[in-house]
Amino acid sequence: MTRILLTGADGMLAHDLRARFAGRPVTALGRASLDITDTEACRAAVRGHDVVLNTAAWTAVDAAEDEPEAAGRVNALGAENLARACADTGAVLVQYSTDYVFGDTPPTGAGTPWPEEAPLRPISVYGRTKAEGERRARAAHPDGVIVMRTAWLYGAHGRSFVTAIRDRAALGEPFTVVDDQWGQPTWTREVADGTAAILDRGVRSGIVHATASGSTTWFGFARTILATAGLDPELVRPAATVPGERPAPRPRWSVLGHDGWARLGLAPLRDWQSAFADAAAEIGWASAPPSPTDGP
């Protein structure tokens, strides 16, 4: 039976990966148990496993602008350490990456999805460190690294855009959300299922975009969140991105293509709207959040 090492085990995606692989031997290590910037610790942790699912990452996008070396140690050096350890034992590394490795305009033209093979042109420190992590991991273990780029994640175990919007809506006052950044809201459960499908197919290397099909803006997603909860979508108003408002620039166009799945003989993740409807029903987001004035 496949023996799995899961890094970053305290994160939102990691929780769903643990649930998806519950019937298999899984060693789940959080940051306190495994520092992926430690080469020898990685070698010791990987030993005895067939697959490594690396969800450990520096994800504080704005903080990375001020701490590029710290972000790089986790996102680039950490990925390389795990890949080298996997190369030593013949294990497969699934390296979870991000839409931030791209810029604003795909090589296929504005308004078209980013293909898996598009040149990496990140516009933020976070994006550069994740792109470097992809490069180093694949160079260290060319035949044993699967890069899964995902984005706009939400799930039951952790803070996300969904929980932020629900909290804001509970105040009952209008608020604004940007309507000029496009992407694909993606349920962590779907990413976990896609990971299992790839591994069960026997894939050992390649790049896939593990994002939901379809696309929307943050504003469009916010309206869906409110409507699903039975709240007034008019509470949220559209706004334009203000350059320089946040330390790290955000990609305006993060719609990723899914041709990589077809090349593996697999179906991509389903459309974001149906996935979110199921997630909301299961997690409990299909009802309005309590207002701050509600009692126990």
UniProtKB/TrEMBL annotation:
Q: Which Pfam families match?
A: RmlD_sub_bind
- Gene Ontology molecular function terms on file: dTDP-4-dehydrorhamnose reductase activity
Gene Ontology biological process terms from the UniProt entry: dTDP-rhamnose biosynthetic process
Q: What is its EC number?
A: 1.1.1.133
- Superkingdom of source: Bacteria
The record's Gene3D superfamilies line, in alphabetical order, gives: NAD(P)-binding Rossmann-like Domain, UDP-galactose 4-epimerase, domain 1
Question: What does the UniProt keyword field contain?
Answer: NADP, Oxidoreductase
- Keyword Oxidoreductase carried by entry: yes
Please state every residue range assigned to the domain named RmlD-like substrate binding: 3-282
Its pathway is:
Carbohydrate biosynthesis; dTDP-L-rhamnose biosynthesis
Q: What's this protein's family per the entry? A: Belongs to the dTDP-4-dehydrorhamnose reductase family.
Q: Which NCBIfam families match?
A: rmlD
Q: What does this protein do?
A: Catalyzes the reduction of dTDP-6-deoxy-L-lyxo-4-hexulose to yield dTDP-L-rhamnose.
Q: What's the protein here called?
A: dTDP-4-dehydrorhamnose reductase
